[in-house]
Amino acid sequence: MTQDSKLILIKELVDTAEESLRSAKKMLADLVGKSGKSEFARKAEILTDVKDEEGQKIVEGVFDGEKMVDSKENAYPVPANYASKSKLIPGDTLKLTIKEDGSFLYKQIGPVDRKKVIGTLTYEDSQYKVVAGGKAYKVLLASVTYHKAEIGDQITLIVPEKEDSKFGAIENVIPKDITSLDTTGEF
Questions:
Q1: Please, which pLDDT band fits residue 50 given cuts at 50, 70 and 90?
Q2: What pTM does this model have?
Q3: In a domain, 97, yes or no
Q4: Residue 182 forms part of a structural domain
Q5: What is the Cα–Cα distance from 96 to 61, expressed in whole angstroms?
Q6: What span, in angstroms and rounded, lies between the C-alpha atoms of 149 and 144?
Q7: Per-residue pLDDT tens for 27-48?
Q8: Cα 180 to Cα 178: distance, rounded to the nearest angstrom
Q9: Do 124 and 141 share a domain, yes or no?
Q10: CATH number, domain at 127?
């Protein structure tokens, strides 16, 4: 192979690689949106922006399983006790009022469609999870302790009905003397 033919081959390989990168970037942009924002930040785009109201700031966002994410991808910590008691799941819309003294007050303003599944509480990788229907859902420690759940307990878990989720909210712990429940699916 001559030097000229090697140069032509190298140029063709570079052109092919560049075209592959352009295609991959387009596919990625289509999957995550043109902005490159997270799924929850994209969902929050339709919500109201930060505004002042009587010296307070109001921010709306979407719960991602652990925190609230606004349209600008700012993350706001949601107290685990509130998330647990309110049975928040990923996709729920929240309103955060930041008071003059800096305290945060959350309110759920738009619950996502829900379904219930039954699974078994496990603990792996320093995280409590409920395995239901062949999938492991992360759950908040505050919810596990509130319900006094133990590893191996059967759990009624609330998860988003239409969206895939890594998190769920514990609704109940099924008493141990009830052994006939199917743990492979949903109610």
A1: low
A2: 0.70
A3: yes
A4: no
A5: 8
A6: 5
A7: 766 666 555 566 766 666 666 6
A8: 6
A9: yes
A10: 2.40.50.140
Q: 143 and 161: one domain? A: yes
- Last residue in a domain, options 110, 130, 154: 110
CA 176 to chain centre: 30
Dihedral sign computed on CA atoms, order 130, 89, 169, 125: positive
Domain boundary among 91, 110, 129: 110
Q: Is the pLDDT of residue 186 over 90?
A: no
Task: Let me know whether 105 and 119 are in one domain.
Answer: no
Q: How far apart are CA 172 and CA 159, in angstroms?
A: 13
Identify whether 73 is part of a domain.
Answer: yes
Is the separation of the CB atoms in 186 and 160 below 8 Å? no
64 CB-contact burial (10 Å; exposed 0-12 / middle 13-18 / buried 19+):
buried
Per-residue confidence (pLDDT) for residue 99, from 0 to 100: 86
Looking at residue 66, its pLDDT comes to: 92
The DSSP output letter for 87 is T
Tokens 């930040």 belong to residue: 41
From CA 137, how far away is CA 92, in angstroms rounded?
A: 16
Domain count, the chain: 2
Q: Which residues contact 20 (CB under 8 A, 6 or more apart)?
A: none
Whether residue 169 is contained in a domain is answered as yes
- Residue 83's domain spans which residues? 39-110
Residue 62: both structure tokens together: 């979407």
